[in-house]
Input
Amino acid sequence: MKIGRNDPCPCRNGKKYKKCCLGKDDDAYYSNPLNFLETYKKVRKEARIKQCLHPQEGECSEKIIGAHSIQNNKIIKRLSSNGIVYMPCPKSDNPFAPMTVYGRKEATLFTGFCGYHDKTVFQPIEDGAFNKSVQHIFLYTYRCFAVEYHKKQEVINMEKITFKIKPSLINMEKKDNFYRGMHMAVNDFQSVKESFDTALLTENYDILSSVVWEFDQAVKFAGTGFEAMTHDLDGNNIQDLLNFNIPAKHIFAMVFPEGDKTYCIISWLKENDSLFDLYKQQLLSLPDEKRKIYINNLLPMISENIVVNPESWGNWEEYKRNEFGAIEFGIATLFESEGEYWDRLEPPTYDLFEL
Output
């Protein structure tokens, strides 16, 4: 679909297209592939958003902080060696790195909450042990949702800045527009945010269905992510993501060590129980070894918000690191985009539980 002359300009500066980017030439310097890294760093930096996602903006402190989406003192600190961890989350100076070094105080940071709400909302899971309560499951899920929602908003910001640099991209075909999916994802998340906001305001946290797995070992990794599932564990269809008239429904997954245990929370809004009821029964029926295989496949498929102990990662054989990296970079997602089913119960060559 072409942008009309009188339509709002896609660079979102508030002007009509005809008075903004129509007829503008691409910036020759930033369009040069040789300057890709510099361009990428510029766009990433300018796209950052500082906001508080909590619905009670009137209570916000003035300062938006770098909030940890995985707890620093309880989890990241214990996974670190000499103050550093590894994450499959590239920095802007090397966007193709399979694994990146992070200081533990910068790992998993996002600017999605003010200092006041980050402290008061999540204090129950910061100060106390995970107790599998409705409130604790809600808070872990809410923080997982918040970081994913925030990051997708920043990607849409990147689109705006990219169009300013390269206006010729504005009229690209929809099928070629990488950012289109991000717009749809943010739109799908709006009703989810409303559900979380209402729960926060009413302190009625019982809005989720969940499965909690407990393992008798403390692992050397932690991660959070989400997925708009298309198939259950037996390969049965759950939802059709090509039907753009129906918002996608999501599951949220969080894995973390605490004490001498490891916990995995898989949750979704109760309003979506009809979609995920069979999936829930399948999860509950899995033995521990199958549960571990499922996590090994699921986590790198759905997230780069994963923290790994660097020494343990270094002890892995190269072929294990390579397979993990291939799934992290999207080989499984590409496989499923072709209409195939990636069996999440088929063991990969690596095992995160043996890091």
Observations:
- The mean pLDDT is 91.
- The two ends are 49 Å apart (CA to CA).
- Residues 139 and 145 are 10 Å apart (CA to CA).
